[in-house]
DNA sequence: TCACCTCTCTACTGGTTCGGTAGGCAATAC
DNA sequence: GTATTGCCTACCGAACCAGTAGAGAGGTGA
């Protein structure tokens, strides 16, 4: 259950675009975003292109060009961004959780994967880019982070 | 956010061992487990060896040998099995969620990853191998699967 | 003691993915 | 027309993944 560099970079870049959107400054240049978040520039261009193809981002070329969000930051969830660059949020050996076949004592595993995906969604589909910019997460998510136990790795 | 073949196989094999434990039949041979779950035998031996090294499984060699759970099935969670074969449940670009540094508008991402990990844990640390065998998941997890929306992929 | 069975361990391999780079092309502004 | 910026495809090395191989060690039974 790894979060790839690609997904992480995409979210960081998107958060920069969200801030620019909220603050009303114009298009952000790739150079600026990459520098602000410490992302290799060419790699990030690649990633932002994916976001553009999925309709999350708009662009303009030329001297006064750059990138900006296609819709308000509050309408883009983190799940939207991740799906744009990585495909489905959760899958089992390359298949959708509901597509995997289990036999005998393992039968309930399918439902477990469904539950896993659902729990991922409750976080990633409720947090929006606007939440990142504002610095306040939705109550459900905030609640998960309150438990000190959540901050230790096992 | 992929579930690897290794983790999937580990859980399936473990569920077979759990059933044998609950039913009180003796050690299970690798051959039997592999056949029952359709797992390549040598690959599965490899995986079960990991489970053994982590103290989840005991073994005996020879004609009347086989594999069995080291502790009752109700005391082994799915998270235990996954961690034994894959390491940490969730990490961001190879690091623990709480170790990743974010700057500016991306700062809240760390808390998001913490929440993601916490939500994974609420599923994988509550379901035990005994639950799989009995065919009844804990209420919290069962609840997640009840929502029809959880069964569609986006 | 011998034969046979089953797990143990290390190494290997072929293929895919991942993170990142390169470079030419297309559009925009001045 | 020229400088600037994004667009797009291709490429590359390294790591990882799924699976295989095979010799060896510990058991059992005769």
Automatic annotation (TrEMBL), chains A, B:
Keywords: DNA-binding. GO terms for molecular function: DNA binding; DNA-binding transcription factor activity. One of its GO terms (cellular component) is cytosol. Pfam families: Rrf2. It comes from the Bacteria. The keyword DNA-binding applies. The keyword DNA-binding applies. Gene3D superfamilies: Winged helix-like DNA-binding domain superfamily/Winged helix DNA-binding domain. PANTHER family: HTH-TYPE TRANSCRIPTIONAL REGULATOR ISCR, WINGED HELIX-TURN-HELIX TRANSCRIPTIONAL REGULATOR, RRF2 FAMILY. This is Rrf2 family transcriptional regulator. It comes from Rubrobacter marinus.
């Amino acid at each position: 259950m790894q979060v790839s560099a690609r997904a992480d970079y995409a979210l960081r870049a998107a958060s920069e675009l969200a801030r620019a959107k909220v603050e009303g400054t114009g298009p952000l240049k790739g150079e600026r975003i990459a520098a602000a978040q410490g992302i290799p520039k060419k790699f990030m261009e690649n990633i932002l292109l994916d976001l553009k193809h999925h309709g999350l981002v708009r662009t303009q070329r030329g001297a006064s060009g750059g990138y900006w969000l296609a819709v308000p930051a509050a309408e883009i969830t983190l799940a939207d961004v991740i799906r744009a660059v990585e495909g489905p949020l959760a899958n089992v050996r390359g298949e959708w959780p509901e597509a995997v076949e289990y036999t005998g004592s393992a039968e309930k595993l399918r439902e477990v994967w469904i539950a896993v995906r659902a729990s991922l969604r409750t976080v990633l589909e409720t947090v929006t880019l606007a939440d990142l910019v504002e610095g306040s997460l939705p109550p459900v998510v905030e609640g998960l982070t309150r438990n000190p136990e959540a901050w230790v790795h096992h």
